[in-house]
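This part of the workshop introduces the protein records we will be handling. A record pairs a protein's sequence with a compact description of its fold. Backbone structure tokens are a discrete shorthand for how the chain folds in space. The question running through the whole workshop is how a given chain folds. The record below serves as our worked example for the rest of this section.
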Amino acid sequence: MRAREYLRRLEERRRGDPGYRSGRVFSSMCTLPRRELVRAYVKFLDTNALDPRVFPSVRELEEEVVEEAGRWFSCPGAAGYVTSGGTEGNLMALWVAREVTGRKKVVAPLSVHYSVKKACSLLGMRLVLTGLGEDYRADPEELGRRVDGETAAVVATVGTASLGLVDPVEEMAEVAEERGSFLHVDASLGGFLLPFLPGRRRWDFEVEGVSSLTADLHKLGGAPIPSGLVLFRRREWLERG
């Protein structure tokens, strides 16, 4: 089959999908990529970020993105890298928490994204789910009863998948710090939204107990799908992991 015929078939398949401009995509977390970002993306389609000796520009650009994101999320010296999205980011954050703490227990509210459950299964970690408060956010009191000296990480969500709610990060950070546990903030949905909303909210690295954070560039960030970030407060954590 000729390339032209393949392209025709692909175009036919694509016409069956709704586009973001059509108004037919309801409640999607992703957005139409900005034209400028698509053009930039295409320029690097044949590069390999895992081989900086051959493609040094990709590593340099990634470092610039991480540095800028660190400033956005109140931690200019943050370490991290570009991911394929929140699922990979959550997996890597919990992996680092396990390696640094030597523990295998994760505590999170029922509203946590299902990727955290997958990550725990892959990493051999035990996930303990806690109930929600009347506002459907994490209940810090119940969380405090379940977090102990065996807990590697507590997970807070900034923009839950079902309701878009923000967990009480400050209270959860206090619980995690008391037990020597990591607090991972899954801001895959809200990371590139909350900074633009009115009112002051403390949910990122501004909260001292936050250890790691994920944010998706393809969710309200205008980047091609898939693309995200995972950041860590301390570089040695990432290097140790």
